[in-house]
Request: fold
Amino acid sequence: MGRDADGYPVTRTPGGVVRGARSARDLAAVDDRVSGCRACPRLVAWREEVAEVKRAAFRDQVYWGRPVTGMGPADARIAVVGLAPAAHGGNRTGRIFTGDRSGDWIFAALWRAGLANQPTSVSRDDGLQVNDVRIVSAVRCAPPDNAPTPAERDTCSPWLARELQLLPRLRVAVVLGGFGWSALLPVLAAAGYALPRPRPRFGHGVEVELAGPGGPLTLLGSYHVSQQNTFTGRLTEPMLDAVLQRAVSLAAG
Reply:
């Protein structure tokens, strides 16, 4: 596995993603390998174009322009699973859900739930810390029109699978949106979790308990914190708070 100019190990094929994820011994190794992934040509071209052209408001900033890793400690009992980084959010700042309105919503809610030390996330050096939660995404690169393809989702899934395997205390997964839900279920099935048939459908407030090799895991569905949902009132702060409070309660129990 070669390394790029910044020292990250480069992965160029779906098979390389499988091998790189499987051999990662800890979350730091997963993050390192995710940061150098180039396995999806369309996503690589888009994230790098956005990082070069930039948005006018951020023209003086150096964009991350790489895949965006997860965030949170290895002893987390809760995972929050999103869709993908935003072109001028995580793709700019290099931290998941950071620098856009979606991040404003999720980190404020995590703070209210006692899972973050501050309600805002604007840059990688702003002092934000989370506890008892690992925040991940189904796809690690910003996609055009916020729409990864099924093939891109599947290529990226080994990173998600390995990340979850490296959370030995994981008890709850809060899934933001139907895309994340559809991406997570096959990952859990491959990891040995018993999925009911028919497979549970996504919905806000849906709660599904799965038996697995490391103990039970409860899935909680929430509408995504996208502007499409928050601006229209489809998702409100009390709705999101209720899901996260339920997650904290289940993790503690």
Notes: The chain has one domain: 14-252.
